[in-house]
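Fold it.
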Amino acid sequence: MAAMAPVKVAVGQMTSIGDAEKNFSVCADLVEQARTEGCAMIFLPECYNYIGVNLFDGLNIAEPIDGPIMARYRALAQKSGLWLSLGGFQEVGPDPTHRYNSHVIIDSDGLVVAVYRKIHLFDLDLPDGPEPIKLKESDATAPGAEVVACDSIAGRLGLTVCYDLRFPELYQKLRFEKDAQVMLVPSAFTRPTGEAHWEVLLRARAIETQCYVIAAAQCGQHNEKRCSYGHALIVDPWGKVIARLEDPGATGIAVAVIDLDALNKIRTKMPLDTHRRYDVYGPDV
């Protein structure tokens, strides 16, 4: 891509509930905060639209990308003049018992630029500890099968969702095959896994790909069965956290500048793209 001026962006954090109307109001407020701060783009977390008591609740509110829910967010982008990253939308799936968990990028004209369907589904059973976890996303969600990147006002974006974070091969493909400059990880991490792994994984993905990483987050108690870790972050290509909310468990935004010239300087000084040993481990690693 041609050289771009530094761009101010916002990472969002919220506590979604089982009420899409109230969640939309929160999202609209976060967008307005970002606009007031002079941001060109805001990144919202996984499940920004809805979090139910159980996984099957999402099936009942699932819609196609061209449905009325997404139309409201497209209008919001157009009205605010901001690009939106919508981290995990309940999209109608391939059969009546499964939906997609879809990451949607909307430009400032309200046009859908890209759709990524979450590839790695969170199937986990951790019975021990103060907060036992038993969640099988694949019971009601179908996995995607396409690696997606797109150009934006903030650079070339690599789209992922939450549990994808644990699979570095995806980020390697986004960087070295799709030319991503900014990795997106909208999430609803559980508290036990977040406390143990959230920040270290985000910083690792930034360092090993030499990309910015923007991780919008769900936080707090959504209902009697589910709570999320929070701690929304923006990490630079050197692995430094450059934005985080003062209160890691509150609704709000944190702001940082995406500077692609600085990114390119890091890549020039340490050219991982030319040091990769395809002859040893192949181009698919």
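The chain has eight helices and 16 strands.
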